[in-house]
Design a protein that fits this description.
In chain A, 0% of the residues lie in helices and 51% in strands. Chain A is built from no helices and 13 strands. The N and C termini of chain A lie far apart (36 Å). The chains are: A mainly beta (113), B mainly beta (127). The A-B interface holds A 38, 40, 42, 44, 48-52, 55, 93, 95, 97, 100-107 and B 35, 37, 44-47, 50, 61, 63-64, 97, 102, 111-120.
């Protein structure tokens, strides 16, 4: 199984400041035949289902604010919130879809400092 | 608008069975892979199972934790996906989310991640 490890477990960031979340996979999720990273990011606010933010490691979903960006390749990925807003308080998860079992990171809780 | 609505959850004793349903609307249900993802109280997300569309053979896969106990199926004529859960254990207690995959996009092996989610339904396994 591919193990997804997120860090930190939680972070507190001031409004307007940058938040950075790391996600590392135990093996590469880069598919060589199409040069795509099979990695997604989700946001889950309290009492709500998760929401897809980013797929293919860096493609923002329609309607997702451009302060959210994804980067990285192979085994190391980052979700960045460039200027934290109050509505960004949530838990963020990465997920690999390179192979089954599909696996998620443990989540990173983002709060306001 | 894509909508997914789960039903069938509740309180059940260990060893008993329960069947969850996920009704989709706002899209051509039969064209998409459907999944179940669960979240134990206060914990993270765990993929449970998916079923691909008939165009991709209706391929089914399960997480090791539920294989042999849970069965996923779909009825495209009713736009419903099911999760039959047998031999339930206390550790199966969770909110179960139904999720739709993105369009297959012509991939030979379409990616299975979770484009749209239902609101989830609570399953509590307890004596």
């Amino acid at each position: 199984d591919i193990v997804m490890t997120q860090s930190p477990d939680s972070l507190a960031v001031s409004l307007g400041e940058r938040a950075t979340i790391s996600c590392k996979s135990s093996q590469s999720v880069l598919y060589s035949s199409n040069n795509k990273n099979y990695l997604a990011w989700y946001q889950q606010k309290p009492g709500q289902p998760p929401k897809l933010l980013i797929d293919w490691a860096s493609t923002r979903e329609s309607g997702v604010p451009d302060r959210f960006s994804g980067s990285g390749s192979a085994t190391d990925f980052t979700l960045t919130i460039s200027s934290l807003q109050a509505e960004d308080v949530a838990v963020y998860y990465c997920q690999q879809y390179y192979t089954t079992p599909l696996t998620f990171g443990g989540g990173t809780k983002v709060e306001i400092k | 608008e894509v909508q997914l609505v789960e039903s069938g959850g509740g309180l059940v004793q260990p060893g008993r069975s329960l069947r969850l349903s996920c009704t989709g609307s706002g899209f051509s249900f039969g064209d998409y892979a459907m999944s179940w993802v669960r979240q134990a109280p206060g914990k993270g997300l765990e993929w449970v199972s998916f079923i691909k569309s008939k165009a991709y053979g209706g391929t089914i896969e399960y997480a090791a934790s539920v294989k042999g106990r849970f069965t996923i199926s779909r009825d495209d004529s009713k736009s419903v996906a099911y999760l039959q859960m047998n031999s339930l254990r206390t550790e199966d207690t969770a909110v179960y989310f139904c999720a739709r995959a993105p369009p297959a996009g012509g991939y030979t092996y379409p990616p299975i991640y979770f484009h749209y989610w239902g609101r989830g339904i609570l399953v509590t396994v307890s004596s």
